[in-house]
Amino acid sequence: MPRPIWSGSISFGLVNVPVKLLTAVSPKDVRFHQIDSRSKARVKQKRVSSTTGEEVPYEEIVKGYEIAPDRYVVIEPEELEALDPKSTKTIDIEDFVDLDTIDPVYFERPYYLVPEKGGVKAYALLRDAMRETNKVGIARMVLRTKQYLAAIRPVGNALVIETMLFDDEVVHEDEIDGLPGDEVEVSDKEMKIARSLIDSLSTDFEPAKYRDEYRDRVLEMIEAKAEGQEVVVAEAPAEEPAKVVDLMAALEASLGEVKKARAKKGA
Question: Which are the contacts of 37, defined by CB distance < 8 A and separation ≥ 6?
Fold first, then answer.
């Protein structure tokens, strides 16, 4: 079980629910170090001055914000500390909104909220009430000196709080060129086949059936090389995406392939 990284309470109205915060994800990236190909020793990076080329002692390094090429405003640590959001022990729910109205692009990182002693009933009440009303609590919280916008939602028996991006951190579609609009005409027949194709590929979401196949192959190669095996990697040619010449023909062919695969699987 992951260790709590924060403890406090959820506040909505005059109700306080004592909780602790646990991480809900554990990224599995394969991380590499830089090493010298000759000696196989690890390469360490040094902080050097771009002007003199000399190494700069850690205690002499300060934060600077670039306002023009090679022009910086230096910010002292105590100046930043004075602006830090005050650390609080409360997750303040400001609004309840419909879950369906939140675009997933705003979600950032999830955590579990687990009730502390004395908060189990209030926790269950909040969870069940949000589930019945399909509501999500929009809150603010301070974690590691940074203030976050966050969404609290029920997931099974748990409450999950997910840090969110602020609106000015999201690229909106009206800032993107090249998106098709109403000027693109789609025929009824094309729409019908597209819906049939989507229906044929529709299923329940089973997270465990999706794996990071690249990571698996990398780890297998590392294990083989660690055991002294010689690994010969055949470079596969990059696949070029097929050009869609006839959209209708591509839709019909795709639907036919899906039906064949489903029939073979059921046989």
Answer: none
What is the domain count for the chain? Answer: 2
Place of tokens 């002692």: 57
Q: Give, for 159, the enclosing helix (H) or strand (E).
A: strand 158-164
Q: What's the rounded Cα separation, in Å, for the pair 124 and 7?
A: 18
How many helices (H) and strands (E) the chain has is answered by 5, 9
pTM over 0.90: no
**CA–CA dist 175, 167 (Å, integer):** 13
Contact 106, 161 (CB under 8 A): no
Q: Are residues 165 and 265 in the same domain?
A: no
Task: Please provide the size of the chain in residues.
Answer: 267
Supply the range of the domain harboring residue 266. Answer: 186-200+246-267
Look up residue 53 and give its two tokens: 């080329």
Q: For residue range 39-84, list pLDDT tens digits in order.
A: 989 998 889 998 898 999 998 999 999 999 989 999 888 887 777 6
Structure-token match 């989507």, residue found: 198
Query: Which two structure tokens, joined as six digits, stand for 50?
Result: 């771009």
**Of residues 143, 146, 138, the one with CA closest to residue 106:** 138
